[in-house]
Amino acid sequence: MTTFGWVSDTVLRLGAFTCVLVALIALEFWTPRRPLSMNRLQRWTTNLSIIALGSIVVRILAVVAGWIAVPLVAMTAAVYAETLQFGLLHQISLPSWGKILLAVIVLDFAVWLQHVVSHVWTPLWQLHKMHHADRDFDATTALRFHPIEIGLSMLYKVVWVMLLGLPAAGVLVFEVVLNATAMFNHSNWAMPLWLDRWVRILLVTPDMHRVHHSVHKDEHDTNFGFCLSVWDRMFRSYTAQPRDGHVGMTLGLVAYQNEQPAELAWSLTLPFKGRPVEASGSSSK
Ligand SMILES: [Zn+2]
Ligand SMILES: [Zn+2]
Q1: Do 224 and 132 form a contact (C-beta atoms < 8 A)?
Q2: Which of 172, 218, 246, 252 is the 20 to 30 Å CA partner of 208?
Q3: How far is the CA of 117 from the centre of ligand 1 (A)?
């Protein structure tokens, strides 16, 4: 745990997470984009249990890191790099705000890149597909990442933080912002279209990320961003709208168009099941 002023980073994370999730759920109830098709209570229980398990994995990594004196979580890595003056940013002079901004941008690119590789490399896809199996799309879908994927993501982030010498404050800002934007762009809020057009110039909007959850492979292999929308435009992996329309499109994976994705045990064991054709137009996954 790291303390900023009088408040710990855990309190900051939990506070931001709860406020954003409650606000988005209120918007989803008020103006939903699509009707939900699965049992909401079961699905929410599953998605919330998955994020709780992911948090436990990160906690275990932090405890093990303390035992073996090797940073295994991003925040500790930042403190470790600063103590050793290790990494690129410790060799150059930049104001603190500049380092924090750079950390947010660089880590967002790193997560975008990891997401692209997760769709291409089968072992990572086996983990990542649990996220895509959700047949509904709301703020809780953003919490639905396999705990092993959460652990691997953390180790991957540690490498970036160490090599670049990213500051702890930058890592914290990034993690809080990414968590909030991921819940936002998975939300079932019918955001006004004029607002979507403006916001997606900078950030990934729900209409932009919903394309990524299409059953059509050519659509689900686009729009990989979770925060900044620039990477998909820059690397030509951007799809503006789904061809079946936001209300008419089918979400999830072709092989799992049933009630199983709402079950916790089924979801957690999905990476270890066989590999049927999961996306329309897919033959390799
Ligand atoms: Zn994906
Ligand atoms: Zn998603």
Answers
A1: no
A2: 172
A3: 10
**Taking a C-beta distance cutoff of 8 angstroms, is the pair 180, 190 a contact?**
no
3-class DSSP assignment, residue 4: strand
CA distance 158 to 41: 35
Mean pLDDT of the chain: 93
Give the distance (Å) from ligand 2 centre to CA of residue 12: 24
More confident residue, 28 or 93: 28
Is 252:215 a contact under the CB 8 Å cutoff?
yes
pTM over 0.85: yes
Q: Ligand 2 centre and the CA of 131: distance in Å?
A: 7
Neighbours of 129 (CB within 10 A): 24
* Nearest bound ligand to the CA of residue 111: 1
Length of the chain: 285
What confidence score (pLDDT) does residue 283 get? 38
Compute the Cα dihedral for 233, 236, 238, 243 and give only its sign: positive
How far apart CA 100 and CA 155 sit, in angstroms, is 20
- The domain spans of the chain are 8-194+255-272
Where is average pLDDT lowest: 31-45, 68-82, 240-254, 270-284? Answer: 270-284
Coil, helix or strand at residue 7 = strand
260 and 223 in contact (C-beta within 8 Å)?
A: no
Between CA 4 and CA 189 the distance in angstroms is 33
C-alpha 141 to ligand 2 mean position (Å) = 7
Cα of 3 to ligand 2 centre, how many Å?
31
Name the E strands within 194-285. Answer: none
